[in-house]
Amino acid sequence: MFAYGIFKQVDDLNQLEDPGFLRFEFIFACAFLLILALRLWVMRGQGSALPQSAPDWQRVAAKLVHYGMYVALMMIAVTGLAIGVVFTLGLRDGALMGFCIAAHEASITASYALITLHVAAAVYHRFLRDGVWSAMVPLFKERSRDQVKATDQG
Question: Which coarse location class applies to the principal site listed for this UniProt protein (predicted)?
Fold first, then answer.
């Protein structure tokens, strides 16, 4: 859904004059928020994939990036909804619309930065072979160092 939002972005506020388009944007934003909320609810009981030996700074950074991504993604949808509401109220120009657009753009920029950090951390842990990669990228399970040693020796 995030990728769709990137490629199907509103380039001109006048696009919101189409009631069908505006309705779709509202439904899309609400569905996106619902999926994020469900994902957070499902993942609330899961612990960190970091090994016990991981330094405290990595634990703090992981939590900040993880929750920061969710906040940024939620804010994209919330500010998008706010833009739609402000537009519908006829306040197309002015400080309120400017604030909503600036907050929307800041949320998008923050999400790009946090997703980049998340991917960098995944790659970093892939080279460490500490098991974190497999938790972050479940499609490509890594072999642990012990499995690699056993294969090399056998």
Answer: membrane
